[in-house]
Amino acid sequence: MKDQLELLWELQKSDLDLRHIKEERERYPREIKKLDERMSIEKERLQTEKGKVDLLEKERREKERQLSSSQEKIKKAEGRMSEVKTNKEYQALLTEIETIKSASSREEEEILQVLEEIDELKKDLSKREKEVATILEKFEAEKKMIQERMAQDEIVWKEQMERREVLSKQIESKLYKLYNTLKEKRQGVGVVNVKRETCQGCFVHIPPQMFIEVQKNNEIIRCPNCNRILYFKGEGKAR
């Protein structure tokens, strides 16, 4: 029976490793999705900032077009000066020219303001692009690390599945059935270590005489509280 208990213990460790890998398999895609979402957010924010610059550039071009139009009007108005015949017409033309020049001056000021704003935004954007590039590089590295762990886990999964198959074939069918029943009822743990007279499955103290017998590993002894199969592997750290 001692050999059977040792096989059960090894089988339990293998099943716990498989459970851990299964949990990681479920967690990895969520982590990758979260990283993808964070990357998408950073890219969208950067695109929004680029959009602000594009809008200002569009506004600048429109104002420059208006300024060019105003300057053309001034030239045409000044060109009509030689055609004016009366003082009244002359004064009216001067007023028209001054009005256009005044509007043109405001347009020039507005263009300078927009140019300053564009320049400031471009400086901020350049800094932000570097920051985002660093962030994205970090996220990509994290994704790569997760993918590498996934690949490694697949190798371990295959190894543990093969190991489990070998172990299960060496365990008596009745005992193997009991183990599986307990494992299903007790959150995947059917065999537990006993440490300092305490069941490491439910952490309930077991009777001293029972602990003496458990340490021998010569028979199937089950915890009086959680009903798991007890196994003694020494007073080291319980698995």
What does this entry look like structurally?
- This protein has helices spanning 2-79, 87-170, 173-185, 208-216; strands spanning 191-195, 198-199, 229-231.
- The chain has 239 residues and is mainly alpha-helical.
- It folds into 2 domains: 2-171, Helix Hairpins, CATH 1.10.287; 175-231, no CATH class.
- Strands 2-1-3 form a 3-stranded mixed sheet.
- A hairpin with a 2-residue loop joins strand 1 and strand 2.
- The protein is rod-shaped.
* Low-confidence runs: none
Number of helices: 4
**Name of the CATH class of the largest domain:** Mainly Alpha
Name given to the CATH architecture of the largest domain: Orthogonal Bundle
Written as H for each helix and E for each strand, in order along the chain, the element string is HHHEEHE
Please describe the structure with a list of short key phrases separated by commas or semicolons.
Helix Hairpins; mainly alpha; three-stranded mixed sheet; 4 helices; 2 domains; 239 residues
In short:
By secondary structure, the chain is mainly α. Helix content is 77%, strand content 4%.
Topology:
Elements lengths: L1 H78 L7 H84 L2 H13 L5 E5 L2 E2 L8 H9 L12 E3 L8
Parallel strand pairs: 1-3
Antiparallel strand pairs: 1-2
